[in-house]
Structures
1.
Amino acid sequence: MNITARTKICMIIGDPVEHSLSPQMHNAGYEALQIDDQFVYLASRVNVNDIADFIKGIRAMHIRGISCTIPHKIAVIPYLDKIDAVAKKIGAVNTIVNDEGKLIGYNTDWLGILVPLEKHITLQNKTVALIGAGGAARAAAFAVTKKGAKLAIYNRTIKKAKELAKEFNGEAYSLDEIQNVKSADIIINTTSIGLKQKNKTPIPKKYISNKQIIFDAVYDSEESRLIKEAKKQDAQTISGIEMLLHQGFAQFRLFTGYEAPIDIMRKAIT
Ligand code: ATR
């Protein structure tokens, strides 16, 4: 451990946050580049009602970088000094950089969706079924439509699906119409269904086929039921760890100014 009085603090905030693998991932990167005297990465559970106080704390303590996870990605926006153009379009911030007292909001989640998907498929004219309409779904909608895919959004609260569909030129469905995902080339889950209740899945197995790619953007220590069942159906699968890694590599660059040592960061959490 090389922490000194000059070491800059980065951290993830969320509620809950204890499951997060971001501290292992970022600190392994600092160590590998021998910048662990310059940066340390922690985690803090912050209640969404305390976000204004937390932002004051960032300023008071000169914290260098913040990763935001559930439920802070939208809540932090009004408190920041500047929002980068992509984060503004997505409408969610997963990264805050403290640039000498100026708090700038970025979004790297969309790269966490795009980079793993493009290793499997060219998105132009493909159909994407997106489950959920929260912060992660907004990043996914931005990523896939940027590359010319056609979007269908499925959400418990249909109003939110319609709002998102309007912004990104997609179609909106309720979860009662989930059977329509059968015709999609790609299915992306961004809901926490299956995270809290491990035996649950947002998509019945019978609607998944070997012609599809199933991306479960939500990560957990064990494989989700959705991914397990997709494998049984011989679909191609992408786990939430891939999203975590690729949004994290871009975040690492924003916090430190260095390229992320990707193999070491991957090894630290897999
Ligand atoms: P994030 O920023 O990670 O995307 P979020 O903004 O809280 O998190 O969004 C969570 C998404 O999961 C929402 O689409 C939510 O549906 P609603 O818009 O209806 O709230 C969805 N979700 C969470 N728990 C769910 C459940 N038990 N059943 C169905 N959808 C659920």
Note: The chain has a mean pLDDT of 96.
2.
Amino acid sequence: MIAPLVDLLRDRRTVVLAGAGCSTESGIPDYRGPEGRLRTRTPVRYGEFVRSEANRRRYWARSAVGWRRVSDARPNPAHHGLAALEAAGFVGGVITQNVDGLHHRAGSRVVIELHGSLADVVCLDCGDRISRAEMQTRLEYENRGWLERYRHRPADAGGREPQAAPDGDAELPEGAYESFRVPGCRICGGVLKPDVVFFGENVPRDRVDACWALLDAADVLLVVGSSLTVYSGRRFVYGAAERRVPIAVLNLGETRADEYAAVKVEGKAGELVPRLAEALGAAC
Ligand code: NAD
Ligand code: ZN
């Protein structure tokens, strides 16, 4: 099943465009699963976050509860396989839409985190940066009693643990947020935001340019685990098509690149990427 993909990638330099499907096998949910369903939640938009203190409380409360799932996540064989393909010279770099840092942790070197990283927090007022780990310490300190209550409390009447959501946050009952305290910037008291690109926000220009440079140096674009519903990633498919760079897709379910794909492989990234690496002689 992967033979046509192996043939396409052999003797060529590939740029990978990765998405949430790379990390589902590490326990981080995606947005749109194989049935193409969109989860019911709507992530906070940039404007809503900046304008409303109540929205920031909601964001940070959910993030405080859900963060451990992301910080505890480990790279899976898909991440390791991509790192091995890079080390062996087949992959020139990874453009990832993921914000979980797992490509770096697997050993990939050339990684552009298109939508930023959950690991960093930035002050919107003075630009000061702190790690998300430090933010978590501050969130937990400021909200000791609150976290005791909601971390172990059922998120719904069914008595389940709070359900993890894709952006490293968790579902909480409405009303849980009101008593939550959000720490301000340690320097200026300003608004702290995770250094990820929210919906309604643009990817920084130099970051997009760096992606185009990777694509310009590539002979193949390989999409791994992304529905490509979000335009900021999908644009590189259009760019590859314009440049007549062949496009390959490895995904569970449909993607917006399928109609452009020279090769489409349907399946789990954690199984197929290591097989691809092995077939090309890149040891994982
Ligand atoms: P998406 O959820 O829209 O699409 C994921 C795709 O991967 C789906 O087609 C799904 O069927 C497929 N998939 C799921 N598990 C797979 C597996 N094991 N192997 C192969 N394919 C699998 O994700 P997207 O296209 O990356 O867009 C989501 C947006 O949300 C991005 O912009 C991203 O910033 C953000 N996001 C990030 C994370 C993360 O950092 N891990 C998680 C969720 C969402
Ligand atoms: Zn500040």
Note: The pocket of nicotinamide-adenine-dinucleotide (ligand 1) is lined by residues 19-21, 23-25, 28, 30-34, 97-100, 115, 166, 225-230, 251-253, 255, 268-270 (CB under 6 Å).
